[in-house]
TetR/AcrR family transcriptional regulator (Brotonthovivens ammoniilytica), 178 residues
Amino acid sequence: MKYEKSKQKIRESFIRLYSKYDINEISIIMLCENSRVSRSTFYRYYSDIYEVLEEIGNGILDKFIKIRANRCRNSFSNTKDYIQELLNCINQNADFIYCILVKERNGLFLCKWKKIIRQDLSEKYTKDHKQGEAILLKLEMIVYGVLGVFSYWLSHKSSCSDQLVLSALIDIWDHGKI
């Protein structure tokens, strides 16, 4: 219990700091002071700041994978329900995902996220087509379109309605319209 509480304090403080500073500006001392844990406690769980970043990112990606798995098990009756669940997850983690996707464009996280989106979309777009270069190129464009919508939405939350984002994502997901 104490273990998870200390790690949670570190993760929450990291996200607060990450939304204000670039990753290379966040020190372990700064993070420990902000989370009110000792450095020895920090080092009990993490070797450096990047390990905290990776753990948080992998936790969010695991949530995306679970949402995708629910879709594969037909828990979502349509694309709208599926995308709404993704948007809810992104909304719950908006500060961190904004930093990863928009502010710093973390390549490792983005590659992993693209792979999840590509796996989902490839089932739709490659089942009726040969695995030719043209369909793979279209698939890559669609993946970037999806990430572009998420990025735009997170950058313009005050002026971009969730309904507009949902509609755009359905067009991209179901029809390949970019």
